[in-house]
Structure formats: C-alpha cells, structure tokens
C-alpha cells in the first residue's frame, strides 16, 4: 500500500534503519515534521501491524487499509504530543483502536439504514454464514463497548492489538500478575455481557 506517497518522496537513509523508536520520534519532532526519512521509517516499522489490528476489527482488507492511512495521518499530525517516545508502539496501537472503533460505529449506522432492505433480500447458504459471522463480531464489539473504559482497554490491547501481558503491564503501569488477573475478570464480565446481548437479540427476532 502506498501510504500518501511518503515512501516515494524520500528514500530511507541506511542509518535510520537501526534507530530506535525514541530516536526516530526525536528526529522527527526536532525537524518540525520535515524529516520524512524518520517518519517513513516509523510507517515502515508499524504499517503492517496497524493493518493487521484494523483487519481484526473490521474483517475487510480494503477498509483496514483505509483505516491504516487514517491512523498514520493522525500519527503524523500528533507525533509532537507524544510525551514518552519510548511508548511509540503502544501509542500507535491505541490510535488504531480508537480509529477502528469510530469507523466501526459509522459503518454500523450506515448498515442500520440498509437493514430493512437486506432483510428482504434472498441469500444463499454462503451469504447466510457470512451474515452470521458478522453478527457474532457485531455482538462481541457491542459487548466490549459496555465494559468500563479500563476493562475495554485491556481487552483490546490483548486480543485486538495482540500485545503480550508483559507489554500491557508496561503500558498501563501494573505488574504482570495484576494484568493476568484483570484479564480473567474482564473475560468473565465480557462473557456475561455477550450472553445477555445475545438473549436480547433473540427476543427481538421473535417479535
């Protein structure tokens, strides 16, 4: 994917390849956004990961790539606000999560407008299976949004951003054992919410 032609405007310098995230952020910020080699390396380093996370949310490669571009536009414009350059990775993933959530909500509103038409359309077995999978994903995302913000964060970091317990612990400033306990509690809460949401959906379908 050609991200805003940044990669074509300025070839990476060999020295930039070995620089840490912290060094790249500092170079970019000090240049007031003019050091595109530093920014290009950030894009090169995290573009694939952002697309993978977006794909987990949206289940559509084209939409995931669109979100990826939006994410790096935000990264470019807000990089000077990052207080701790060492946390670049988790900061980008948090922007990705928020962008995906906003995009999902917009998509959901759009789908709701078309729901009556879709219900009247005839679908074959393959399409029915796809709709069932989408409904399960919608139920899961809707249920996650009902969790407390701190519980939403740990679920999204672990399951959508694919962060290890050790990485989450560093990100939120807790011990690994505390993160593991919170994950267990969050999974239990989420399971109960999913069951309740599913029951409500079944009741509505019977009306």
What is the fold's blueprint, element by element?
Layout: H1 6-9, H2 14-17, H3 21-30, H4 36-58, H5 61-78, H6 88-120, H7 125-144, H8 149-160, H9 165-172, H10 176-206
Helix pairs in contact: 3-4, 4-5, 4-6, 5-6, 7-10, 8-10, 9-10
In a few lines, what is going on in this structure?
The protein is an all-alpha fold.
Describe the structure.
By secondary structure, this protein is an all-alpha fold. It folds into two domains: 1-114, Rna Polymerase Sigma Factor, Chain: A; 122-207, Orthogonal Bundle (Arc Repressor Mutant, subunit A), CATH 1.10.10.10. Helix content is 79%, strand content 0%. It contains ten helices and no strands. Helix 3 packs across helix 4 (36-58), helix 4 (36-58) runs antiparallel to helix 5 and helix 7 (125-144) packs across helix 10.
String of helices and strands: HHHHHHHHHH
Helix/strand/pairing class, anyone? mainly alpha
Number of domains: 2
How large is the count of helical segments? Answer: 10
Low-confidence stretches: 1-10, 113-129
Number of strands: 0
Distance from first to last alpha carbon? 46 Å
Radius of gyration: 20 Å
The CATH C-level name of the largest domain is Mainly Alpha
Classify the beta-strand content into a percent band. under 5%
Q: In the CATH scheme, what's the topology name of the largest domain?
A: Rna Polymerase Sigma Factor, Chain: A
- Nearest-integer average pLDDT: 78
CATH structural architecture of the largest domain: Orthogonal Bundle
Level of helix content?
over 70%
Instruction: Indicate the overall shape.
Output: globular
